[in-house]
Amino acid sequence: MAITFNDLVPEFRSLLSQLLQACAAHGVTMVPTESVRSPAQQAKYWRQSRSIIEINGAVAMLRQHGASFLADVLVSVGPQNGDEVTKVLPGNSWHQWGEAVDCFWEVEGRAEWSTTKKINGVNGYHVYAEEAERLGLTAGLNWPRFKDAPHVQLRADDNPLASGLSWPEIDQTMRNRFGAPQTTAGLVAAFQGAAPAHDPIQLSYSAPEGWNVYETTDVCAAVFRGKFAVDADGSPRAYNQDDSIALDYLANAGRPGNWWALVTNPDGTPRVQDHADPAPGYYVSTTSLTNPQFPANRPSHYVDASTIPFLVLPGGRFQHFTSSKILRPGAVGVAYNRLNGKFCFCQFAETGPADKIGEGSIALATELDINHDPKRGGLENRDVVWVVFAGTGVGRGMSIAEINAAAQPVFDQWGGMARLRSYEQL
What we know:
Blueprint: H1 10-25, E1 29-34, H2 39-47, H3 52-64, H4 68-76, E2 100-107, E3 110-112, H5 124-134, E4 138-139, E5 151-153, H6 167-178, H7 184-190, E6 201-206, E7 212-216, E8 221-231, E9 310-314, E10 332-337, E11 342-352, E12 359-361, H8 362-367, E13 379-389, H9 400-414, H10 416-422
Parallel strand pairs: 8-12, 9-11
Antiparallel strand pairs: 1-2, 2-3, 2-5, 4-5, 6-7, 7-8, 8-13, 9-12, 10-11, 10-13
């Protein structure tokens, strides 16, 4: 979703522009990720770390204090999962008032979240906070509790309640500004027609890097459109000391002291396959999902990218992609190449970098008629629609027949190819 400043109050919009320019003058690039945040999105953030007792208590409190609109919003967003993001209830964040924005520090084209790391002697978040304070803004990095380095806001008051507004006043302002509580159809409309208005789909995750994941709520699934990077992990011939004979470059498996994609010996060196293995002389490549019936130091313990169609999801983030059910490795899904109309059932078998989405196995690329070379293949444009059904599959690798048998009925119940094609423009 593109970030717009149009809905920010004019004074704050002007100061924010000055702030970003001031950071740039220090060699620091700050990239806005969120400006105006709806009460529904605030409610989702707040709910995802709260127990049902806390949620029911907050709903009762809002109703008791004359904030029925906000109480309805808090109820309407449904169950959420994830770490604590905010302590602020919907309506009581300056994001809903157009007076706050969140930015990340961009370093070499990637989001950097550390507040201690320095590039050329400076940390971007400290420059951002210092320049914000110089302009009279309030920086979340300087808050005494619950420091929020990406956040800056117009006022010094922590929130609208702290500024002297009452819950009825906040509730009425939110009602006037945002209208009726968002339904799933309303959320779709808000995100510019990602699917037909009647379709029960909602934005579930918006990444700082610019990609989004949606959730279908009738049949719980994560849906997104992405590129296709080809993954060789789990294949017996994935990695070798000699890159020229391996399917992929050894650098993609890690480095001495930190081999994240290889089985290692007690001394930390990669284990080399012997004559009892399918590819003697090659290293043993791992996957997040395993076949526990086989020894952990053998290739058979892992899901073979060259024979099994599987997808890869961002490590540390995929838990946020669905709310009504938990998404776990082993779940089944489907990938659809909108360039040629080919699709294939697959299994979620591997996790990858947290900042990237859109990756699948060699076998999956082959089925979608995509160049399946891990070194030079794949698709650079977002031409694949991916769907992963939460609560499906098993906690181990599956054969192709098992994947198809598990995926077909839930895919049909979900809406099949007609629904899949409707998401080509996500």
